[in-house]
Amino acid sequence: xxxxxxxxxxxxxxxxxxxxxxxxxxxxxxxxxxxxxxxxxxxxxxxxxxxxxxxxxxxxxxxxxxxxxxxxxxxxxxxxxxxxxxxxxxxxxxxxxxxxxxxxxxxxxxxxxxxxxxxxxxxxxxxxxxxxxxxxxxxxxxxxxxxxxxxxxxxxxxxxxxxxxxxxxxxxxxxxxxxxxxxxxxxxxxxxxxxxxxxxxxxxxxxxxxxxxxxxxxxxxxxxxxxxxxxxxxxxxxxxxxxxxxxxxxxxxxxxxxxxxxxxxxxxxxxxxxxxxxxxxxxxxxxxxxxxxxxxxxxxxxxxxxxxxxxxxxxxxxxxxxxxxxxxxxxxxxxxxxxxxxxxxxxxxxxxxxxxxxxxxxxxxxxxxxxxxxxxxxxxxxxxxxxxxxxxxxxxxxxxxxxxxxxxxxxxxxxxxxxxxxxxxxxxxxxxxxxxxxxxxxxxxxxxxxxxxxxxxxxx
Length: 460
What we know:
Number of helices: 14
Helix content: 25-40%
Largest sheet: 8 strands, antiparallel
Low-confidence stretches: 6-12
Shape: globular
Strand content: 15-25%
C-alpha cells in the first residue's frame, strides 16, 4: 500500500514532495518522513500535524491510498530488518518495511516461499497486510493476512500493540489501508518449496464462456491460476484468453543441470522505460496488435514447462518503471469481483468493455476462494477481473461509474488498493462491514491522526 514520488527524502528523513500512486494520477503534495527506528516512527506519528499522516511502502498501490494532501506520509522502507527465521517451522519475523523481493532472496535458499504474492514482488510486508493483497493462489491459500500470525501496530495514542488474528483490531487492520496505525513488524507463516522453479501449464480459451468453464472445472488441480484476457476482441471471440496455471516444481522434475542449485533465486531485468514517451503510444490500434500477437503466440495446450518464479509471478518487474508506458496522464487500474452465480454480470461487463474498445493489454481474470476476515479485505468467493486503462481515455470516468453501479448491483466490490475514483455512495453496498470499520477507527483514533487522500474521498 504505497505511492510513487518525484523525489527522495533527505538524509534527515524529511522532505516535501509530490506523491502519487503507481498509476501516476491525482498527485498531491505532502511532507515525506522516513523513520529509521521504531522510536522515530512514534515521533513521526506524534508530529504529523493537523492534516495527519499515512504509512507507505514501495510505491506500487495504483491509486491514492498512500497519499495525504497537505499532511505527512511515512515512508517505512528504512525499517527493513529480517529479525528471525524458523527454518524448521516455516515462519519469519520481519519489519513491515521488508519487501517481498527481499524475503524471497532470504527464504528461497532455505526451502520457503512467501505464502501470497501479487503481480509485483516490490511491495512491503506492511503494505501487503494493509491492502490484504491476493495472488494467483487465492482459491487455495486466501489473502496475505490469512498467513499473518501476529503483528505489532503503532496506534494513534503512541502505543505499540501486539495484534493477533481473530480480534477486531486485526480484522480492521487487514485491508484497512493503513488507517488503523503503522505496522512495525509481522510474523508470517510460509509456504514450503523444493525448488525455485514453477511447473506451468498453458492453454488457450476461445471466448469468455470457454474460459470460465475451464477455470471452474480444473482450478482445484492447481495452486496458482490466472488468465490473460483480450478485452479488445469482439463478437464470437469476446473474452478470448490465455490461461496459465502451475505449482512449485518438485526436485525430481528438474533436469540434472538445475538440480545442482535447485533453490537459486534468479531474476531478469530489462532496460528501464524512458521517463518521457510519446502520448497515444497505447492506442486501440497498437494494443489490438499486441493482443492479437500475444493470443496467437500462446500454445493451444502445453504442460509442464519449467519457469522461473520471477517470470511466472512478476513478469513486469523485469521492466523498471513500466508504468511510464501510459504517458504523462498515467493510467487507472480497475479491479472488481462478483460472486459465483453472478456470471451474467461478468459477461455484461466484459462485453461493455469490449464494445467500448478500451485499450487494455494488462487484463486478467481469476477465481477467488473463501472470504478473508478483514472488514475491508477485497476478496470474496467469485470472479475477479483487473485491467489497466489509460487515464486520458475520453469519457472514462463516467464509463467506470456505470461499471461500479453494475458491480454493486450484483453484490460485488472494487479493490480499494487500486482505486482512485470510486464514488463514496457505493462503498457501503460493496463493503458491508464499513460501519464497523468506521466505529473502531473513531474509538482508536479520535483525533484523526491517520488519514489519506483515499480516506477523505471515501469518508473512511
